[in-house]
Design brief:
The complex is a heterodimer of chains A (about 70) and B (about 170). Helices cover about 40% and strands about 0% of the residues of chain A. Chain A is an all-alpha fold. Chain B is of the alpha/beta class. Classes of the chains: A mainly alpha (about 70), B alpha/beta (about 170).
Chain lengths: ~70, ~170
Amino acid sequence: MKKIFLLVPLAFLSCTHVSPYDKEDLATQKMLAKPLSESAAFESHVFSIREGSFGAEGGFGGGCGCK
Amino acid sequence: MKKLLLTLLILGFSLNAAVVEGDNVKPFKLKMLNSDEMVTNGDLKHRVYLLNIWAQWCKGCKKEMAFFDEIAKDNSLHGFGIVAVNIDKKPKKAIKFVKKLEKKLGHKSNIIFLSDSKKTYAKACEAKAIPISFLIKDEKVLKVYLGSFNTMDKEDELIKEIKAALK
């Protein structure tokens, strides 16, 4: 019985489920990984020059990161 | 003690049961989106209608509104209506969207827009997705549709179901 009382609070400490109707704040532009599309393009350009490679940023391709 | 815990657990789950086909419609009393007029499920008692839960921040929801307007004014579906319950925290954004939609359509929308800014109705229905739609006849849920009709290519299926419900 003691174990149950220990496990119940632990269950509440774990990740929270966000209901679909509560995702309003998550759907905003600022919650995107790259909220500013203009600067994202620029950052991507700088990154590709610095790293000497591009691609594998999601979407198309196999994700190998090679050129 | 174990029995008590189990009963509480079962009770907790049953209180939040999602709406499924064959259930009675969850009672609602909601304000119109652009006026203070209240609409209840009792007002639509003898009608066949599609109750849609949508939000302005949901792209799929906005995409299917033109289709909803089209079927709401369709003469071959006489006696059918669309009730769109908006769950935005700030209904102003949704009102703006509706105005934009009406401008695009070139006429006043045939959809009954309601506001549930506190999401009490969405919570009561335990909406598993946004958008979610319930086809209702005589206060009974005939069908539950998860997701946007446009993206799932389910427009024809819905029209078929509506026609069957109107018979």
